[in-house]
Amino acid sequence: MEIRNNPEEVKTLVFCSGQIYYELLEEREKRGRSDVALVRLEQVAPFAFDRIAENAKIYTNAEVIWAQQEP
């Protein structure tokens, strides 16, 4: 699934960190969703504003959300 090749088709851009990335990736693949882009941030402090902006420019039609695992 080459989401990066069709950025205009992406409706949701999900930023996350940690293990939840792999859970979201598995679920996206299981559902065959090509309209959801996942971006895993390795560190949240200092926050990667540049990485957020870079990806938001690629996926201009997408709603941007943050996902995190609750304890």
Briefly characterize the structure.
With 71 residues, this protein is an alpha/beta fold. 31% of the residues lie in helices and 21% in strands.
Question: What tags apply to this protein structure?
Answer:
71 residues; 2 helices; alpha/beta; single chain
Secondary-structure map:
Blueprint: E1 12-16, H1 20-31, E2 36-40, H2 49-58, E3 63-67
Parallel strand pairs: 1-2, 1-3
Structural features, described:
There is one protein chain. With 71 residues, the chain is an alpha/beta fold. Helices cover 31% and strands 21% of the residues. The chain is built from two helices and three strands; from the N terminus they run βαβαβ. It has helices at 20-31, 49-58, and strands at 12-16, 36-40, 63-67. A three-stranded parallel β-sheet has the order 2-1-3, with helices on both faces. The longest helix has 12 residues, at 20-31. The radius of gyration is 12 Å and the shape is flat. The model has no long low-confidence stretch (mean pLDDT 90).
